[in-house]
Design brief:
Layout lengths: L1 H10 L5 H12 L3 H10 L7 E6 L2 E7 L4 E3 L1
Antiparallel strand pairs: 1-2, 2-3
């Protein structure tokens, strides 16, 4: 059980509060074009997410399953 937990913690590192706050602010203050695009793609599967933190970057839209990021 400990090995599984340690592996999961390595894979799922916590984001800094600064990154989380910046992503949240970008989500809440989307441009009209970003809102329009989100309205179109949010109903499709595989699922898209907005303002995803990937390393030091925050991408506008991302699909984890397709490994696709849109900036």
């Amino acid at each position: 059980v400990r090995a599984k937990r340690a592996r999961a913690e390595r894979l799922l590192k916590r984001l800094s509060q600064e990154q989380t706050g910046r992503a949240r602010a970008l989500r809440n203050n989307a441009t009209p074009d970003e809102r329009r695009l989100w309205h179109i793609i949010s109903c499709y599967r595989p699922r898209f997410t907005r303002q995803l933190v990937i390393g030091p970057y925050i991408v506008d839209f991302a699909c984890r399953e397709a490994k696709l990021a849109v900036e």
